[in-house]
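Deviations from the work plan: none for this task. Representative record:
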Amino acid sequence: MREAPRIEFLWWRGCPSWERALAELREEMRALGLDPGSVEVREVATGDDAEREEFVGSPTIRIDGRDVQPTGEPAGVTCRVYRLRDGRVSPLPDRGDVRDALAERLAAPGGAR
Amino acid sequence: MTTGPEDLGIGERAPALELPDTEGRTHSLADAEGAPATVVVWTCNHCPYALAWHDRIVEAACDYASREVRFLAINSNDPDRYPADSYEAMRDRVAREEWPFPYLHDESQAAARAWGAKVTPHVYVLDAERRLRYQGAPDPDYQEPAHNASWLRDAIDAVLAGKDLARPQTDPVGCSVKWKP
């Protein structure tokens, strides 16, 4: 039986975009036939939490452990700077990047809906 | 987090400012004697909200330059916890980009406390008497450039026209000011 991907959403209270990012993630999951309720949502509150979670900023989305927009930034409680596909800076990941990362995982051997 | 600044009320005279820019030149509100409006923006280098809105604020500054509206940007963040917001990083950024207004360093954080700055960006619009006429976000959505800093522009237009603002305050949205311990 093929397994659904593990999707993690890590957020820090200091960045107000996290709810919007989570809603957009769930919409993309729903569109691809994934259960939006299956996201593992975890709050990162302290620097120690960030180190333990290897959290490089809020929000962070991982699919089977892989960041939707990998970065070399160090762990820490901060708001994450994303680059949209049109080049703009944003506190949110590009929805296209989230969609493609989900679709890529589903298309990979072992991916499932 | 250490906080405690009082909110600056609409109609109140803005607290004095005297801060260095990235070239070491000191700027104050009093320098703007005769300016029909002054815009003060708390911002920084590391925050994606401040970065997302930056170009819109720059465009507004350019658009209103001919009407002698003065813009000042201020960074008050603790550089020990956020090195991207250090004075050196401010200088590097201004050297790389074209800023049509000075980028001031509030090292002691006294200005942020006096003004009640909460997040980056936090926009203030003052009239010719340096009374607060608008504070809040530049426009309704950091993600949508088409908003074009509409709330900020509405506020400037109202001040220049001597009219009351329909929306003198909005909730500023962004990264919290990074207070020193």
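Strands of chain A lie at 7-11, 40-43, 60-63, 66-67, 82-83, 89-90.
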